[in-house]
Amino acid sequence: MTTRVAVLGAQGRMGSTSVTALEAAEGLEVVAQVDVGDPIERVTEQEADVALVFTTPDVALEQVLWCVEQGVHVVVGTSGFDGDRLRAVREAVEQRTDVSVLVVPNFSIGAVLLMRFAATAAPFFESVEIIEMHHPAKVDAPSGTAVRTAELVAAARAEAGSDPVPDATTTDPEGARGAKVDGITVHAVRSRGFVASQEVLLGGEGEILSLRHDSSTRESFMPGVVTAVRHVADRPGVTVGLDAVLGLDA
């Protein structure tokens, strides 16, 4: 059985790369490509089973909610899809038990494993900080991957009863210490030459553990994109992260 896919944000960097990957994947067919100025109704006119959303945060939520209302499964790849947007989607999906939504902060399988490794290691170290590095055309900071990593690290430390990460800083008028996400410091770098990189630094007395992942091409995300589109319908409700479809949520 062929899964019919609509790509929203099809002319963007991730959207266009995804169209190519999906068209090459067995059992998947791209039936609609929607971008700025195109009617979203193409999704239903072409009878898409799944919508892959790579549009900007200011329009992505509205598009996701529209797809849910139409009974179309959704994979959300939009970065910056924050907690408020996620809550709105959960509320909408509660009214549609026949629709599944998979929100993916990072489609790289290596990045997913890095997040899991960081969460596993975090309770064993006194200090944890995250540095994320992306190209200067990225519009949101910190990245969705860094936010998700910080949330997983913080949750693991809370479950283990870890003390707060130590930091004696009292003066930082320029924000040099970075942002705080659930008590974890996150630093964002925007520089030409990067596609998507992240490093998690874990420190204890006399030692540093550095976990790092680099994506140098957008093609590195495509196995995750294809997997998400293939399996979104298998996960009822709203799921965050590729862990579930990769069998890592056990």
Automatic annotation (TrEMBL):
Pfam families in UniProt: DapB_C, DapB_N
Domain Dihydrodipicolinate reductase N-terminal: 4-107
Keywords tagged on the record: Amino-acid biosynthesis, Cytoplasm, Diaminopimelate biosynthesis, Lysine biosynthesis, NAD, NADP, Oxidoreductase
Pathway recorded for this protein: Amino-acid biosynthesis; L-lysine biosynthesis via DAP pathway; (S)-tetrahydrodipicolinate from L-aspartate: step 4/4
CDD domains, alphabetized: DHDPR_N
GO cellular component terms listed in the entry, alphabetical order: cytosol
Residues at the catalytic site: 134 (proton donor/acceptor), 138 (proton donor)
Sites where the protein binds (S)-2,3,4,5-tetrahydrodipicolinate: 135, 144-145
Protein's GO biological process: diaminopimelate biosynthetic process; lysine biosynthetic process via diaminopimelate
UniProt: NAD(+) binding residues: 9-14, 41, 77-79, 104-107
Signal peptide extent: none
Localization per Swiss-Prot or TrEMBL: Cytoplasm
Location, primary (coarse class): cytoplasm
Subunit structure: Homotetramer.
Family listed: Belongs to the DapB family.
Entry protein name: 4-hydroxy-tetrahydrodipicolinate reductase
Organism this protein belongs to: Aeromicrobium erythreum
Organism placement in taxonomy: Bacteria, Bacillati, Actinomycetota, Actinomycetes, Propionibacteriales
